[in-house]
Amino acid sequence: MGYRVVVVGATGNVGREMLNILAEREFPIEELAAVASARSTGNIIDFGDTGKTLTVKNIEHFDFSGWDIALFAAGSGPTKEYAPKAAAAGCVVIDNSSLYRMDPDVPLIVPEVNPDAIDGYTKKNIIANPNCSTAQMVVALKPLHDAATIKRVVVSTYQSVSGAGKEGMDELFEQTRAIFVGDPKENKKFTKQIAFNVIPHIDVFLEDGSTKEEWKMVAETKKILDPKIKVTATCVRVPVFVGHSESINIEMEKELPAEEAQAILREAPGVMLVDKREDGGYVTPIEAVGDYATFVSRVRDDSTVDNGLNLWCVSDNLRKGAALNAVQIAELLGRRHLKKG
């Protein structure tokens, strides 16, 4: 016996990836619905590589009564309107938008990091999925925090254009093509040219000069991992289609030499340590695409601070940063609470 599952925003990048991962992980499903906006209604989409297809239903007319889990990948606007309706109908919402992440009555979950927090979902029948850059970082930080108590994190991100959706991917492709053939370049999705460039600006600017993406990394890490950890972030968009990378500097209360950190990370859930300290002995974003793992490389001591460590962290942002984490939350919810399948 399986679950009745709804994927909301099923025609977008993350929604399609959710369908792929549900199929790949053989999530126990009794019935599956693909739901999206009116303009996508009636479209036929694949359910992963199962050979099955789904006809997209209109969210405006969809009745969530009797459904067990709704994976939302529809953005904050539609989520604000329809997630409370789904939750009120008894369907547990797992939301990929930023809308509920800092709500004290909504657990913000990375299953490898804070699985026990999911027990609080009953307050609103909603569970939040973290920001893509936060998700992969806390998977790498959690085992190190358990071993030596992290005091401060300085992170610089190198985030792919898929984090900005299909429009971001299209813009990188079109600008790159335009440069090669001599056509004029247009900036539509991004504030500056993204092809052959990097842009230190993701989301809106806040009063203190940081961006909302940077604020998310700070606030979400505190909520998921430990409110005492100090975090400062610089988030940068780079001309990569899929896969986020992060350069992370960590200051800890206790000494944790690089070799010990490597040993800990080698055994950590969700982490794949690839750190050969030789040409090519590290992971780049193109190698992480399509994989479930959070890859860690370049682990080394930082002698400029007491108990300092540097590392390089890479993950497929459409997977661990979004769709995979949501499905893992659904699996955790099933094991701990819903108990079907």
Largest sheet: 6 strands, parallel
Strand-residue fraction? 15-25%
User: What is the spatial order of strands in the main beta sheet?
Assistant: 5-2-1-6-7-8
Please give the share of residues in helix: 25-40%
Spans where pLDDT lies below 50 across 5 or more residues: none
Descriptive overview:
The protein is an alpha/beta fold. The protein folds into two domains: 3-129 and 322-338, Rossmann fold (3-Layer(aba) Sandwich); 133-316, Dihydrodipicolinate Reductase, domain 2. Helix content is 31%, strand content 23%. It contains eight helices and 14 strands. The strands form three sheets. Strands 5-2-1-6-7-8 form a six-stranded parallel β-sheet, sandwiched between helices. α1 links the parallel β1 (3-8) and β2 (29-36). The longest helix has 20 residues, at 319-338. The termini are close together. The mean pLDDT is 97.
List keywords for this structure.
Rossmann fold, single chain, 341 residues, 14 strands, Dihydrodipicolinate Reductase, domain 2, 2 domains
Q: Concise description?
A:
With 341 residues, the chain is an alpha/beta fold. It has helices at 13-24, 76-88, 132-148, 165-181, 212-224, 258-267, 285-288, 319-338; strands at residues 3-8, 29-36, 44-46, 53-55, 57-58, 69-72, 92-95, 126-128, 150-159, 230-237, 244-252, 271-273, 294-302, 308-315. α1 (13-24) packs across α8 and α3 crosses α5 (212-224).
